[in-house]
Amino acid sequence: SSIPTLPLLDGRRIPQFGLGVWQTPAEETARVVGEAFKLGYRHIDTAAIYQNEEGVGRAIAESGLARDELFITTKLWNADQGHDSTLKALDRSLSKLQLDYVDLYLIHWPCPEDGKFVDTWKAMIQAQAEGKVRSIGVSNFRVADIEHLLAETGVMPVVNQIELHPLLQQSALRDYHHQHGILTESWSPLAQGGDLLKDPGLQAIGQAHGKSAAQVILRWHVQLGLVVFPKSVTPARIKENAEIFDFELSAEEMAQIGKLDAGTRLGPDPSTLRI
Ligand code: NAD
User: What distance in angstroms lies between residue 96's CA and the mean position of ligand 1's atoms?
Assistant: First the structure.
């Protein structure tokens, strides 16, 4: 069954499911993204810091897919925050991706103590007006950071991409996003493929549906209305991860997964990460 799209605040739409390529080695990226395209993936989540934008670009060029069928996200790295450096970094990303525009451009981390994300955001608003990016958003922003952007520019990010999985469910940020029409994107949706996949409760839910624990977790994100792009370089898993639109978790199963929340962060704390 086909991948749903969700509406963004700016009137555009985003495929709810895609492929993440953090830690996908540069030399494997074109192959991995090409496999995903053949399996029906259309949404790719990369970043300048992943150092694999060229591979994503090669896969796009070789896919034969129309540009408007694809949804490509990249992210501005922390060291490039600031007005002019943002515009230059975007041009570098577009050149590596062999694209005239990206569908979504994100500020990767707020780095609040460095005080540059408002100037960065103004450059992204300019890049959007120039047609180099269709939609603009943020990643790892806290409520206070989003409120600050809004107060300074009046322009809301269409998404906030945050660490989110059953062990870190982020209900306060999700509520805030929901109230303001911001979509939540879940990074490390499988908790990076660690012990969570061995959780007996998740495995039992999977067995009841003929699905794996990974598929149960991804389906949980989808039913919460989140945007999700698990990473894998393994063809069988890339295929498995996309097979989540032909079953439904019950309210009881959703509630059972809800109880796994432990406030466990796998990545950095956005409050303290600095440029
Ligand atoms: P993830 O939660 O997607 O886990 C990926 C790992 O899980 C794989 O390396 C593999 O070991 C395992 N896995 C994948 N599919 C599996 C399956 N079907 N069965 C068993 N194991 C499986 O972790 P991630 O890569 O950290 O997150 C996904 C994407 O989120 C990234 O690729 C990136 O695009 C994005 N991300 C963004 C940020 C940010 O700061 N904005 C940070 C981290 C990740």
Answer: 23
